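My hope is that you will study the record closing this message with an eye to the fold:
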Amino acid sequence: MDTWKKLSLAGLGTAGTTLGLSLWLGKRSWENETRQRIESLKRSVSPEIPSSISLESLDQLPEPVSRYFRFALSDDQAMIRSARIDHRGEFNMGGGWVPFTSVEYFSAEPPAFVWDARMKMNALMSVRVRDGYSAGQGSMVAKALGLYIVTEGDARNERLAEGALMRYLAEAVWLPTALLPSERLRWSPIDDSRAVATLTDLGLTVSLEFTFGDTGEITSVFSPERYMESGGDYKPIPWAGRFWDYREHDRMMIPEKAEVEWQLPEGTGPYWKGRLIDVDYEFAG
């Protein structure tokens, strides 16, 4: 009996060591892959971004858009080249809300992002999620216990790429100078409080309806059709985001709280709720 106990304990010890090693290797692999994507994003940032913008040049924009830039930017505002943004909040995994922390890297020109999140399922298990957009392609990867549970992203998946570029356009609220009109981005009026932003990159074109508050802040974004993956298929679903609690960072006004939702036939509710923890910009010039 003692011999069997010893063998059982030895087997458990070996299994524990193997699991620990597997988790450590999975963590190292994830960090290496994420670092490579971030370094690629930083290398892609254009060196030709203007160093600053004068607000007087924006008077021809739709009135709520001009009001937004006068609210969000300072005159002679330095242009953002890239940014790192840290969030903390909750994500609805379908079976309930789980806490997450994330770090996201952005390129303002060309549009690109890498989002690396850790979602704590319980005391023993976390899920790592990495979404991204770069060079006309979207990507989405998730791992649990060192194993891939979701991996998507190739040049043929135009729906995934469109959704990722639309996400970039919505999250540009944290990069206000990336919303300035350019060869890629144009604004079209709707009324005194709404306008449509249309962003084009490498043949992909996405649009979002922006709603602006009385003081000029962006309060929400909306698309009647953002493609949602379900069972391997992509279906167009209404999608919206809301932003509030604006604070000044580097002479710019950006929201510190936000939530995002799919507006499903069976009901509407946010699936992502987060607050800004830290932001670090690299400016042109």
The first strand starts at residue 52 and ends at 53. DSSP finds three helices and 15 strands in the chain.
